[in-house]
Design a protein that fits this description.
By secondary structure, the chain is an alpha/beta fold. Helix content is about 50%, strand content about 10%. The C terminus is likely disordered.
């Protein structure tokens, strides 16, 4: 493998567990407040304005590519954008997202629309089309959406939650109501991801961030079927799907039944153990603790090398185990990316990971 592999091929091949010259690397939430260039734009526009103005969303999407030289560009948007299009009233405050009228009754669930993304969120699709035109050098574009369970936690709780008390009380007292909501969210997200693929997304990531808050049984009841429904509707032979769950150690094997090509795992689970447990059927993404990027540069490099080594060089995308933290020094993010870039050289200087490919 080697000479002349394009960035697009590297990511697609890693998703499909085909040999690559080195593992690709990008960072969840790679665009955002830890970048001075983001803070400058953000001083002049609200977060929603950034998401809804293709000129600005394209610029913000490209910032981490230019500054860190990551191997993929993720669309700048938010998982709650389609929820707003369904009829949820969405605000972003300094404490995070708020849904001003939480959805808790069957009437409210029935009132939610299943929007046509071309009409309701044209700016998302236009951002992807413009990125496609800007990125002539074949850098892959990652589209994304939230999965039904995680979106339902925001819609029902009204914002970010600690114990998920309201959505769980609904799950265990009126499961049919919650299933109706999850079903509508699944239909919405299916259309939304299909439209992103049509607009030019090369890979899609489904964020079920809070599915790890469920017991293994409840995961099978309230999250897995909807993840599957969405993933099965996508043209995966062309566009691989990545599934992310924060806190997935207890449900990894079940997660592997979602149909996803890549499992994006958090840092609490050892990557080598995850590989043993899922075997070589699936690719893995992750899983550096975002907190490590707040530490010493040498430690960042050490953890990145260990993670690459556990990833085994094939079917691994180097990434964080959750989104990058706003306090992160840019040099540390860059150091993590650089370790993946130097991987072949590291391998030649005695680290035998690539020789296993
Ligand atoms: O990865 C990227 O660079 C693409 C953009 C992206 C954002 N949010 C931008 C954002 C992506 C992929 C997301 C996903 C997202 N959004 C998730 C799933 C992944 C995860 O981190 O768990 C969730 C749960 C959300 C909901 C959300 N949006 C929260 C909880 C918050 C507040 C917390 C925070 O970091 O401020 C947001 C706001 C948000 N989304 C910001 C950004 C850059 C900060 C907004 C600002 O500039 O004020």
């Amino acid at each position: 493998m080697g000479e002349g592999i394009s960035n697009r091929d590297r990511l697609l091949r890693a998703c499909r567990r085909q040999p690559v010259d080195r593992p690709p690397v990008w960072l969840m939430r790679q665009a955002g407040r830890y970048l001075e260039e983001y803070r400058q734009l953000r001083a002049r526009a609200s977060f929603l304005q950034l998401c809804q103005t293709p000129d600005l969303a394209v610029e913000v999407s490209l910032q981490p590519y230019r500054i860190l030289d990551v191997d993929a560009v993720i669309l700048f948007s938010d998982i709650l954008i389609p929820v707003q299009a369904m009829g949820g009233v969405l605000l972003f405050t300094e404490h995070g997202p708020r849904i001003t009228e939480p959805v808790r009754t069957m009437e409210q669930v029935e009132a939610l629309a299943i929007p046509d993304p071309v009409e309701s969120t044209p700016y998302v699709l236009e951002t992807i089309r413009r990125l496609r035109r800007e990125l002539q050098d074949g850098v892959p574009i990652i589209g994304f959406a939230g999965a039904p369970w995680t979106l339902a936690t925001y819609l029902v709780e009204g914002g970010t939650s600690r114990h998920f008390a309201v959505v769980k009380s609904l799950a265990y007292s009126h499961p049919s109501l919650l299933h109706r909501l999850l079903g509508k969210l699944a239909q919405t997200i299916t259309l939304f991801l299909q439209a992103q693929i049509e607009a030019g997304a090369d890979v899609v990531q489904l964020f079920d961030t809070w599915a790890g808050e469920l017991s293994a049984d409840a995961y099978e009841e309230f999250a897995l079927p909807y993840q599957r429904q969405i993933i099965e509707s996508l043209p995966r032979e062309r566009v691989p799907a990545i599934l992310y769950i924060n806190g997935c150690a207890h449900i990894l094997e079940k997660m592997a039944r979602s149909g996803a090509d890549v499992l994006s795992i958090d840092w609490r689970l050892d990557l080598a153990e995850a590989r043993r447990r899922v075997g070589d059927r699936l690719a893995l993404q992750g899983n550096v603790d975002p907190g490590v990027l707040l530490g010493a540069r040498e430690r960042v490099e050490q953890v990145a090398r260990e993670t690459l080594s556990k990833g085994g060089g094939v079917g691994h995308i180097l990434n964080l185990g959750h989104g990058i933290l706003p306090q992160t020094p840019v040099e540390n993010a860059r150091a993590l990316v650089d370790v993946a870039k130097r991987w072949t050289r590291d391998a030649e200087s005695g680290n035998d990971v690539m020789s296993r490919t």
